[in-house]
Amino acid sequence: MKLRVKEALCIGCGLCVENCPRQAISLQSGQARIDRSRCNECGLCRDVCPRMAIVELVPVSAEELYATIASLRQRTGSIMERIESIHSGNADPETGRD
Ligand code: SF4
Ligand code: SF4
After folding, report:
1. In 3D, which of 86, 88, 83, 1 has the Cα closest to residue 41?
2. What CATH number corresponds to the domain at position 13?
3. Staple 9 to which of 16, 26, 50, 53, CB 3.0 to 4.6 Å?
4. 3-state DSSP call for residue 46?
5. Is the CB of 10 inside a 6 Å radius of any atom of ligand 2?
6. pTM for the structure as a whole
7. pLDDT value at position 87?
8. Same domain, 68 and 94
9. Number of the ligand 2 atom closest to the C-alpha atom of 41
């Protein structure tokens, strides 16, 4: 289990620092930072964080990543087509359909 700190959620309260049994977390510029070389992946910091700012990194295979990107590209393309269609006046502005 690899953990990381979501910077946007961390408020620098220091609870994770106080509770880490390996002194693997420090506050830097008001943000928690995990030193992976010290971390034993016990998960305590994640459990005590009041902001749920410490999350598990989920390993993803290259195939899954490519499939996700392809799907996002397809959906983006479809949305762009509908927007262009609306702007060109060929579509119903309510539904976006021709
Ligand atoms: S407990 Fe959560 S909010 Fe507080 S410093 Fe740690 S990561 Fe940031
Ligand atoms: S998982 Fe455990 S050892 Fe690692 S940073 Fe969090 S509290 Fe410390």
Report:
1. 1
2. 3.30.70.20
3. 53
4. helix
5. no
6. 0.68
7. 84
8. yes
9. 1
